[in-house]
Write a structure and sequence with these properties.
The two termini are 30 Å apart. The protein has 12 helices and 36 strands. The model has no long low-confidence stretch (mean pLDDT 94). The chain has 745 residues and is α+β, with helices and mostly antiparallel strands.
């Protein structure tokens, strides 16, 4: 609910368990009043009146200055600390005062309150245009607060879209040049957040290729700390989300936690600023490094969203709010798989570039026999792609690989009851390709400078509309001709020499181009699903999830390593989006040997995929795979549609225990992975969560054997008996089902 008090000019944004409030002061500036958890007994009409002045702020020229928490911080009102916007104006729109001298450009922006409106149809920038529905489509209120510079012809609309049931507010800006000269923005964040003093314990993720999403937790220093990406994808090194809480005042299931995530896949930055006054500010949006946003006369720019919220039940509560929001409001509902994601087989590790109709059809038959639902042919099916040095950009089926065309394989995959998918990397080109030979100017580069190749490839210039149109035509033809139901959309290098026909705007234009390609394809082909992959987890964020169905979290499929990677991923993103493969016993990246049970138990925590070479497995091993897949399909609705609780984390106990439970408490899945266990030491049995207290539950293993029976009360107080976990192995997955409910349920 959005409430405005016209007497005090106070805005109250009231959500399920939280509030957000600000007030327009006598200088016509919206000033932040508070953001946090509402008292338990608060009623709908309990809100901040704005009649009491809680803070007095020094003038902007004092030594203790510029810490007034303006809702929109601009360079002009603020020069000492971080800002939301910094603009450059080429002229002064009115005559100079006597004695003044003109210094251009004028780097001073001061925005003052004009008015507001509440609407139900507002959209942030780069919102999906594919037309597919989301899980929940009911209208939401958006507060639009209009601010205008009293001197320069420039205005900004500060937007707050509420999803009250999940305590989430999406923040973005709508900027407009009202003058006759081009205005340049040097800094453009989507929003700046003001958190209570002392909210200095930061949780985020860091890493690199094959080690993405490593959870990090630390105290904010005095000054500024930054997480960012300086490329045209989201990044392996960090991810655009955060949790913040007071040190020692929050844990997995308790305490107040503030969170935020950017819905954007390009060059981004989130900076955390602790002022000398202990005030905490968070700025999130476009990375100002090599940034340039020019607004021509009359031009508008709408930023993507900064998704923000507050949880009153710890880091787990923050995760569950983000998971539910993503499932209901971000992810498109797949026309092919509206309820859950399919079990996938990918042929990469089985054949690499040695593709043929014969070996692919042999794999497809074995995959179908063990229960696979989606068969994906990976790299090497197109152009001159017999190795990684040629062919990218030539998205036509290779006659060398499939002399009779691809239709024969597609028909057999469909006859076997599976859908068909292809690996593509549409943003890339090899110099050894027909596309590059025809259009060498179509790549990112600076004239007279090297065109640096990484993995023997260059990045196409998505600042060129003709490039996007050309790639769309090729991908559209593939989907149409071969009934492609799934693209594994890869992107395997960082940007170097980012010279483009659109100049510094390429950092934004590349992302917009990728989004537009995906949106156009899905609009024309509603049955097409897309997986986001960028050398593993390099392109994962709420922006890309608005047009994809799942993501590839890491190229590292080692089950022990994946446990940590998936724990970090789960902080923000739901299990339904996380593709996880079972690959060979001897992992090709880490060289570690792990048992089949562990590999399946870890992969079943998300969307199950098989990446092992089925041709190298014995009949007995194939039967084991089939048994696990059958079990996964039984528990899949709980994992992909349930609520996640992290009962234990590796960093705390040397073991990872996660529980998924359906919202009504009728079913749950308990997944244990032991990283280390010392003889003579005992981990606590974690109580389960989300069950019905008076219901009776059975606990079964993957073979359907009942191994325990208990009430919901017992399971949520004592947990599972120790012997069900400490059984001498690495892992276990158990299915918990209610067999009777009390009449009060």
């Amino acid at each position: 609910m959005i409430h405005f008090n016209p007497q005090t000019r106070t805005f109250n944004l009231l959500l399920h368990t939280s509030y957000y409030a600000f007030q327009v002061d006598d200088q016509e500036q919206p000033v932040h009043l508070g953001w946090g958890v509402r008292p338990d007994a608060a009623a709908a009409d309990d809100r901040l009146s704005g009649e009491t002045v809680y803070e007095q702020y020094d003038p902007p020229w004092s030594f203790i200055t510029q810490f007034r928490p303006d809702e929109l911080l601009t360079f002009g009102d603020v020069t000492s600390y971080g800002v939301t916007l910094k603009a450059s104006f080429p002229t002064l729109p009115q005559p100079l005062a006597a004695g003044e001298h003109l210094h251009l450009p004028i780097r001073d922006l001061r925005l003052r309150y004009v008015g507001y409106e509440v609407v139900t149809d507002a959209q942030p920038g780069l919102a999906p245009t594919h037309g597919l529905p989301t899980g929940v489509s009911s209208p939401r209120e958006t507060l639009r607060v209009l601010l205008r510079d009293p001197v320069q012809p420039f205005q900004a609309i500060v937007c707050y879209r509420l999803t009250p049931e999940h305590d989430i507010i999406e923040r973005w800006l709508e900027l407009e040049n009202l003058g006759r000269e081009t205005v340049t923005l040097d800094v453009c964040h989507f929003a700046s957040l003001h958190l209570p003093n002392g909210t200095t314990e930061l949780t985020y993720v860091a890493g690199t290729w094959a080690r993405e999403f490593m959870t990090a937790r630390q105290r904010l220093p005095m000054g500024t700390q930054v997480i960012e990406s300086r490329s045209v994808q989201t990044s392996h090194n960090s991810n655009p989300f955060f949790f913040l809480n007071q040190p020692g005042q929050a844990w997995e299931e308790g305490g107040t936690v503030y969170f935020g995530a950017l819905a954007y896949s390009g060059s981004w930055r989130i900076s955390f600023e602790q002022l000398p006054t202990w005030d905490i500010r968070v700025h999130g949006g476009y990375n100002p490094f090599d940034f340039h946003l020019a607004l021509t006369p009359g031009e508008r720019h709408i930023t993507p969203a900064f998704v923000t919220g507050v949880s009153n039940d710890g880091w787990g509560g923050a995760s569950r709010r983000l998971h539910a929001f993503t499932q209901e409001r971000i992810l498109p509902v797949s026309a092919a798989y509206p309820s859950w994601r399919p079990v996938l087989y990918n042929s990469w590790e089985a054949t690499y570039f040695n593709l043929s109709y014969e070996n692919q059809v042999a794999l497809a038959r074995k995959a179908a026999a063990i229960g696979v639902e989606l068969f994906c042919v990976d790299d090497g099916w197109f152009g001159g792609r017999r190795h990684d040095r040629a062919g990218l950009g030539d998205w036509v089926v290779s006659q060398d690989v499939f002399p009779n065309g691809l239709e024969q394989l597609v028909a057999e995959v469909h006859r076997l009851g599976m859908k068909f998918g292809l690996w593509v990397e549409p943003e890339m080109v090899n110099p050894d390709s027909d596309l590059y030979r025809q259009h060498p100017e179509w790549v990112l580069h600076f004239p007279s400078r090297p065109r640096t190749e990484s993995r023997n490839q260059l990045i196409l210039d998505f600042g060129r509309e003709e490039v996007i149109a050309y790639i769309f035509t090729l991908l559209d033809e593939l989907v149409t001709r071969y009934a492609v139901s799934f693209f594994k959309w890869d992107m395997n290098r960082l940007a170097t020499e980012p010279g483009s026909v659109v100049g510094q705007a390429i950092w934004r234009q590349h992302t917009a181009g990728v989004y537009s390609l995906m949106d156009r394809l899905r609009q024309k082909h509603p049955g097409l699903d897309i997986q986001s992959c960028s050398g593993g987890g390099g392109r994962i964020d709420l922006g890309i999830l608005g047009r994809t169905d799942q993501v590839w979290v890491s190229d590292n499929t080692d089950a022990f390593d994946r446990t940590r990677i998936q724990e970090g991923f789960s902080l923000t993103y739901p299990a339904r989006t996380m593709e996880a493969w079972v690959t060979h016993e001897h992992n090709h990246i880490t060289q570690r040997v792990t048992p089949l049970a562990l590999r399946f138990d870890v992969a079943m925590r998300g969307v199950l995929g098989i990446g092992a070479s089925l041709n190298e497995l014995s009949e007995a091993e194939l039967q084991q795979y089939a048994s696990y897949i059958t079990f996964y399909k039984q528990i899949r609705p709980v994992i992909q549609g349930g609520i996640l609780y992290r009962l234990q984390r590796v960093e705390e106990w040397g073991a990872s225990i996660v529980q998924y439970v359906l919202p009504d408490g009728s079913q749950a899945v308990y997944s244990l992975v032991i990283h280390q266990h010392q003889v003579g030491s005992y981990r606590p049995n974690p109580p389960l969560r989300g069950l019905q207290l008076k219901a009776n539950y059975t606990v079964t293993d993957r073979r359907g054997h009942e191994i325990h029976r208990a009430t919901g009360y017992e399971l949520m107080t004592l947990g599972l008996p120790r012997e069900l976990g400490e059984f001498g192995g690495y892992s276990r997955t158990l299915h918990i089902r209610a067999v009777t409910f009390s009449s009060s349920l």
